[in-house]
Amino acid sequence: MVLDWLINGAIGGAVVSLVAFVLSRFVHDVVGRVWLAFVLVAAAFFYLVFASRADAGTAWLIGEVAGLVIYGGMGVLGNRRSPMWLAAGWALHPVWDMLLHHVGPGRSFTPEAYPISCVSWDLLVAAYIAAAYGFGLLGGRRSGLRAERAVRGTAR
């Protein structure tokens, strides 16, 4: 069961990453980044929905809104500054998933599969962003290993 949830999460993360790559590569880089930020905020928004449906209380709702602000802020920074802010947001989201909603008190209102699926989904998207921008596959300027090879004269 857990393995199925992790596999489903990885498939979802792969689809989100593929859509982001296509948008960044063939439309405009900012469109792909906005997509990644939107999905990151949507992933956090589901916890607000779960808490509100369960009448988890004002404190929980405020906490979930705080999560939206944190991940939304990382999405904005990922669009206005470095895409590595998006990678960081996606890489940190499993901490929110697992500590608060799988083993923590949010477990009482969170569907069991959601935080587990989010772990593989989130980490796959974070790895995609780090690789795509770190190796210079995306972005308006040469970055990462491609730029280093160009400086050394070994660009491929």
From TrEMBL:
Positions of transmembrane segments: 6-27, 34-52, 58-77, 84-103, 123-140
Keyword Manganese: no
InterPro entries: DUF6010
Annotated keywords: Membrane, Transmembrane, Transmembrane helix
KW Transmembrane helix (keyword) present: yes
Name of this protein: Integral membrane protein
